[in-house]
Design a protein that fits this description.
mainly alpha; five-stranded parallel sheet; globular
Length: 1056
């Protein structure tokens, strides 16, 4: 039970107890009153009715939570002992209350209220009724006291959980640098007061009724404050913009050397300070590779002098500095438009959380309130629209200076990136400073205005002399050298002149000179070393590698290939696990599980750092917990064809980089303690630190399987044995089932095929392998196709998703509290429909996470070709369903489709159409759907509230809405409209062959599409035959897309 839900239930429990006490008191007062009147007798039946409702809600709450968990494909933990006991007590309490009310009802007579209660009073005083009422009173009293104990425990648990949630929020606030601490302090104070009240109430031998009422009010008020707080929405949206290693590139950039780069603010040297003070637009910092561009960008982005000058530009509004650092060696997010926009929006919303509602109204409306609300993934178009709001909204007066480093490290089309940067910078409230190498794309876009650009390598001669001098002077033998200051200065000046403004070259050369000082070189030796070193970086890198001892060449080549391979730097510990094979005679892979102590692990990390340095001569270095290249230029050099061939020739015979990394991860798992093991959150998904490590190991194993099948299979078998050995530390967990699920969800079809042929391999899992594969975080089309080819049924229901405690089920059945029909259609739990729900970024209930990946992998087509039912019903709100085809068709209006390849969408649509989808299927949604609708800018396809539609009519309504919402000008001819025209063309062509009634779609097309487009759509649909329309539609889409590219790039909105 989540904290907010628990807090609400706790409040209901206190109310239940309060009303029970009032019923006892009122009944007793009627029974014993000498005056014949009761203070609350007029409200006795109303009290009971309230009690009835509260008791019923208490009993069915666990059932409803479990059904909701089933709808979300999750497994809830069993109710606590206090909840189970309280359910039993509430059932007994209700039974006693029913008995009491039966007595009162029998004594009830017709007439006014006074006559009624006079009769009740007289009857209760008869001897025949007195013993029964007294017995009921005693039973209710005992039940009440027992309930107080359990309620106190439940309240304490729930309030503590809310306290932990608030503590987590405060920690997350600090991590996100979110300025909302005062609000958190107020909520924490309320929680602490509530703890004191609960402890006091539960320690009293007999809690008074008004104290219970006060406690109930406090619980209700706190729940209302927390649940209505915008804090949850703001933090959820801010967290959804954050991503792993977002700041890692910034942190890895070397800080500027002392007293360097100060010339940047000198107006006689560069126009940077003038641009900061008075000008708008873009300032471009360029320079040779290794000349210090990133270091300079980090310096000015954090310099107080930058802020002081910008204050003159911003005036009273103030200015916020934002930054992003592209990194070609990093993750996909660190070198993409997605990462750039998320990073910038994250920093904007962190400083101005009130802007979220204005810039992202749809997302704000669609984010649910809760203790840990999860926001959907961001699409590029959504973020571009948000930035356009900053550009166009006059009400947003905050000023921003944005620093974007390494545009040449962007993994995409440079021209599109330049257009986006220039478009954003047109706002009078935004100026952007960028850096890159002097590539033609950036010269053409930003190099035309000489006052708003500079070339770093032409301005750093004094900085380089200072840097070189400090590097040499810091060596202990420099001052004691047997040569005078003039000779030292001449050496430094010669070094500076050779550097040609490249700091990286100076760093590497001074390292070589410092080694000479270690050997007590004289001035001639140092000068000869300097003259011998190549003057360009690539030849210098080659020289450095050539000086690695030949004994280490195999290890050098292996390590460098490992460093080049992954999307993100690997931990030092993984390198340490890999290096063990070169010097440890024992086979650590097949050895026993042996967890390293902290001391042993620290020694391994230190040894690994020394070994990496010896084998790469400093071209790889430890940064934080990971191993990274000294500079991007090192990686670029090693990726050249010549160097790739060199490394392949020098590597260990039979070396496979993917297998080596996977093997290293297996060794790391065997030597690491995972005391908490893992947690199963659904029948197809587990979580925990060990799960993350296993997923990485299996990912690399899947890449190695084609080349080293036997080795990989042996490695995977060893990994399963390892987990079984480790499971002694994890009571009540099943590591075999967990691991086998992960294997099926990885791209290891050959291994899966071999294992499924073994008797009993899947006996541990209650669900089919296909269902497991459909829940993968990264889809494996080869595995899914293999399972379908081997007879797995995509439409077979998985009937064991709802998990109850047997004791709770028995209790609920005994008291007739389970409904006769399930709230959600169990057919939903087929592998096919689970897959559709998992990937569909649609509606307030469906939270798609990998729709684009599913399209690219062709998984929709794979399922459909193997018999998946396009008309299978998927619940979207309680009691209402849509067909898989209806959901897929409505996704054509989603930005998720326009942001991914439209051709893959058309390909999968063709597979749907070939399976004879039902266009007349009912479309009706319950009120909850309309309460959670996205903002007004969404393309409306759903029927009006309370109305019923069909798949065809809903699609036509969506088309009409696209037309009515399209802004004037070029947008009506946008990519989205062209895609929709191709979809309509495919549907009409297929319908003509199958005699579908699509007249409504034809008439809608005439109204929606421009005349030339409508003629082509309707004309082609009349040409029926055996030729598939899908390849033709995809070809025409590409032609239309090419025609519209210039217009779209110019468009009225960024990125359209």
């Amino acid at each position: 039970m989540d904290p907010l839900s628990g807090l609400a239930v706790a409040a209901s429990l206190v109310q239940f107890l309060d009303f029970t006490g009032r019923l006892i008191a009122t009944s007793t007062e009627v029974l014993r009153s000498e005056g014949g009147t009761s203070f609350e007798n007029d409200n006795l039946e109303k009290v009971y009715q309230k009690l009835e409702r509260l008791g019923s809600s208490l009993i069915i709450a666990p059932q409803q939570q479990q059904q909701q968990a089933a709808h979300e494909s999750q497994a809830l933990p069993p109710p606590s002992e206090h909840v189970t006991a309280l359910i039993q007590l509430s059932v007994a309490c209700k039974s006693n209350c029913n008995e009491l009310l039966e007595i009162l009802q029998k004594l009830k007579v017709s007439g006014g209220p006074n006559k009624l209660w006079r009769s009740v009073k007289a009857s209760l005083k008869e001897a025949s009724h007195r013993p029964k009422v007294i017995a009921i009173e005693l039973r209710l009293g005992r039940t009440q006291q027992a309930m107080i104990i359990h309620i106190g425990a439940i309240l304490w648990e729930q309030v503590s959980e809310v306290g932990q949630t608030l503590k987590h929020l405060r920690c997350e606030n600090k991590e996100l640098h979110f300025t909302n601490e005062q609000r958190m302090v107020e909520l924490s104070t309320g929680i602490e007061k509530l703890r004191i009240d609960i402890r006091k109430s539960c320690q009293e031998p007999k809690t008074k009724q008004h104290e219970l009422a006060d406690l109930s009010n406090s619980l209700g008020s706190l729940h209302e404050i927390i649940s209505s707080s915008e804090q949850y929405k703001q933090q959820a949206i801010l967290a959804s913009l954050n991503y792993d290693r977002r700041m890692s590139r910034h942190e890895s950039i070397t800080d500027a050397h002392l007293d360097t780069f100060k010339w940047i603010y000198d107006a006689t040297v560069s126009g940077f300070s003038s641009w900061l003070r008075t000008q708008d637009g873009v300032f471009w910092i360029s320079g040779k590779p290794g000349s210090g561009k990133s270091t300079l960008m980090k310096y000015i982005a954090h310099s107080q002098e930058t802020r002081q000058i910008l204050a003159e530009w911003a005036g009273s509004e103030g200015v916020t500095l934002l930054s992003h650092y592209f990194w070609s060696a990093g993750t996909s997010m660190q070198k993409s438009t997605q990462g750039l926009l998320q990073s910038l929006l994250h920093d904007i919303f962190r400083e101005y959380p009130s802007y979220i509602r204005i810039m992202c109204p749809e997302r704000w409306a669609g984010t649910k309130i809760g203790p840990a609300p999860r926001a959907e993934a961001w699409s590029i178009s959504e973020m571009l629209v948000a930035f356009e709001t900053i550009v166009d909204q006059e009400s947003l007066t905050a000023k921003f200076c944005i620093f974007i480093d390494g545009l040449d490290e962007y993994d995409g089309e440079f021209s599109g990136l330049c257009d986006m940067v220039k478009r954003i910078s047109k706002s009078p409230n935004i100026k952007i400073c960028i850096s890159s190498r002097p590539l033609n794309a950036f010269e053409n876009a930003f190099g035309q205005e000489s006052s708003q650009k500079l070339y770093v390598h032409t301005l750093t001669s004094n900085d380089i002399l200072r840097f070189a001098q400090d590097r040499l002077q810091s060596h202990c033998r420099w001052a004691a050298c047997a040569f005078d200051d003039a000779q030292k200065l001449a050496l430094i000046e010669d070094l500076g002149s050779r550097s040609e403004g490249v700091f990286l070259w100076v760093f590497l050369v001074t390292e070589e000179l410092r080694r000479g000082l270690d050997n007590d070189d004289n001035i001639r030796h140092l000068q000869r070393r300097l003259e011998k070193l190549p003057r360009d970086l690539e030849r210098l890198f080659s020289h450095i590698l050539s000086t690695v001892e030949e004994f280490y060449h195999n290890e050098m080549a292996d390590i460098l290939q490992i460093a080049l391979h992954p999307n993100a730097p690997l931990p030092v510990y993984i390198y340490g696990c890999h290096l063990q094979q070169y010097y440890d005679e024992a086979d650590v892979l097949r050895g026993p599980v042996e967890v390293l102590t902290d001391k042993a692990k620290s020694e391994l990390l230190n040894r690994t750092r020394v070994q990496i340095n010896a084998r790469t001569n400093g071209l790889l270095e430890k940064r934080g917990a990971c191993v990274e290249f000294l500079h991007r230029t090192v990686r670029d050099y090693l990726l050249t064809r010549e160097m790739c061939d060199f490394l392949a020739a020098k590597s260990t015979p039979g070396f496979d980089v993917n297998y080596a990394i996977s093997r290293a991860y297996v060794i790391s798992i065997k030597s690491t303690a995972f005391p908490r093991g893992f947690s199963r959150i659904s029948n197809a998904k587990c979580t925990g630190n060990i799960i993350m490590a296993l997923e990485i190991a299996l990912s690399y194993a899947s890449d190695a399987a084609d080349c080293n099948t036997d080795l990989v299979f042996e490695l995977l078998d060893e990994l399963e044995r390892t987990l079984v050995d480790m499971s002694s530390e994890w009571p009540r967990m099943c590591p075999r089932r967990m691991f086998r699920d992960l294997v099926i969800q990885s791209n290891l079809p050959a291994y899966v095929s071999m294992k499924l042929s073994e008797p009993g391999y899947r006996d541990l899992s209650p669900v089919s392998p296909l269902y497991i594969a459909s829940k993968a975080s990264r889809y494996s089309p080869n595995t899914i196709k293999l399972l379908l080819q081997h007879g797995e049924l995509p439409n077979k229901p998985e009937d064991n998703q709802v998990i109850f405690m047997p004791s709770t089920i028995k209790l609920l059945l005994q008291h007739d509290e389970l409904p006769n029909k399930p709230e959600y259609n169990q057919a939903f739990f087929t592998p096919w429909l689970s897959f559709v729900r998992e990937v569909s970024p649609w509606g307030p209930q469906l939270r798609g996470r990998s729709f684009s990946a599913a399209l690219e992998c062709g998984l929709f087509s794979i399922f459909l070709v193997h018999g998946a039912d396009p008309n299978g019903q998927l619940p979207v709100t309680a009691g209402y369903s849509l067909s898989a085809f209806a959901i897929y068709l409505q996704l054509s209006f989603s930005s998720h489709v326009s942001d991914t390849s439209p051709e893959t969408y058309l390909h999968s649509l063709s597979s749907f159409l070939e399976r004879d989808p039902d266009f007349s299927a009912c479309v009706k949604l319950e009120d909850d759907f309309y309460n959670q609708l996205p903002g007004a800018k969404s393309y409306k396809w759903w029927p009006d509230q309370g109305e019923t539609s069909t798949v065809l009519r809903a699609f036509c309504d969506g088309l009409s809405n696209v037309r009515s919402m399209s802004p004037p000008g070029g947008m009506i001819q946008s990519r989205r409209l062209k895609l929709l025209s191709r979809i309509v063309e495919m549907i009409l062509c297929e319908g003509a062959k199958r005699n579908w009634d699509l007249e409504l779609l034809r008439s809608t097309s005439l109204k929606v599409f421009p005349e030339y487009m409508a003629k082509r759509v309707l004309g082609n649909s009349d040409k029926t035959g055996d030729v598939s329309i899908e390849p033709v539609a995809r070809k025409r889409f590409r032609e239309d897309e090419e025609d519209g590219n210039n217009e779209i790039r110019r468009g009225k909105r960024i990125g359209c």
